Amino acid sequence: MLKLNQIYKVFNEGTMDEKIALNHLNLSMNQGDFVTIIGSNGAGKSTLLNLIAGKLIPDLGEVIVADKNLTQASEHKRSRLIGRVFQDPMAGTAPTLTIEENLAIAYGRTHRRGFSLGVTKKRKSFFKEKLESLQLNLENRLSAKVGLLSGGERQALSLLMATFTEPSILLLDEHTAALDPSRAELITALTKKIVEENNLTALMVTHNMQQAIDLGNRLIMMDRGEIIFEADQDRKKGLTVEELLKEFQQIRGGTMTDRAVLA
Questions:
Q1: Is 93 helix (H, G, I), strand (E, B) or coil?
Q2: Is 158 helix (H, G, I), strand (E, B) or coil?
Q3: Are 29 and 47 within 8 A, CB to CB?
Q4: Confidence of residue 163 (pLDDT cuts 50, 70, 90)
């Protein structure tokens, strides 16, 4: 479902500020894989998601999604195949539009025929059904402006909008980091439920090591633009945060001290 071949990306090349963000990185994901990504600040995690989404283009290498070579494709062109939820709850929705209008826009990414902001009775019934799965009573607030929702409610809506069109790959960019603990727990549980029920292929960046261990069937650790450690489903079952820190120390010969990573 996703194949990254020898991805290389450098910023400020040829200057004193040159930084290799991704260093000939390779990654393959099959249908239904849920991969969590950890690593210290500057490891290349967000750059990796931006490159898959099309916000960035690699200097070298290939990006293949659902057997389509999208290396040079625009972010807009990729949006039919890729869903994304950002760290900022304000980023994934249009605050001045209603819940049903936001859902109609998301629906229109993969259902172009007859698309308009007008919501038919049949489509409204579909939206209500999907919203009920969130268990936040949003199905009874279709005409409410999204800007009036709480951060947790907006993030839950963003998650639903990114997934109910069944994207080829779902990108989760620290999507619980800006929420309070109770709301973060809710969104984490919803993420697990939605990904599993729909057999989605998902790639999630998180600074929370325990969350990275608990979710998904694969875990990768990044540092300096490279994947330096990977754990499959069997390896993850008994994995602890302490063991991950030891792995980093053994591989890099140093200590992972970033406080966010130790959360």
A1: coil
A2: helix
A3: no
A4: confident
A 10 A CB-CB count for 31 gives: 12
Q: Work out whether the CA dihedral 194, 156, 77, 53 comes out positive or negative.
A: negative
**Domains of the chain by range and CATH?**
2-262 (3.40.50.300)
**Helix, strand, coil shares, percent, the chain, to 5:** 35, 25, 40
Neighbours of 232 (CB within 10 A): 10
**Cα–Cα distances in angstroms (integers) from residue 151 to residues 20, 94, 157, 176, in the given order:** 34, 13, 10, 10
pLDDT at 256: 54
Q: Can you give the pLDDT at residue 8?
A: 95
DSSP 166-223: --SEEEEESTTTTS-HHHHHHHHHHHHHHHHHTT--EEEE-S-HHHHHHSSSEEEEEE
Q: pTM for the whole thing? A: 0.86
Confidence check: pLDDT of 115 > 90 = no
Whether the Cβ atoms of residue 46 and residue 21 lie closer than 8 Å to each other: no
Q: Which phi and psi (to 5°) does residue 215 adopt?
A: -100, 150
Q: Which two tokens stand for residue 30?
A: 């099959």
Q: Report the half-sphere exposure of 233 (CA within 13 A, side-chain side).
A: 5
Tokens standing for 168? 């080829």
Q: Reduced to 3 states, what is the DSSP secondary structure of residue 156?
A: helix
Q: Is 79 helix (H, G, I), strand (E, B) or coil?
A: coil
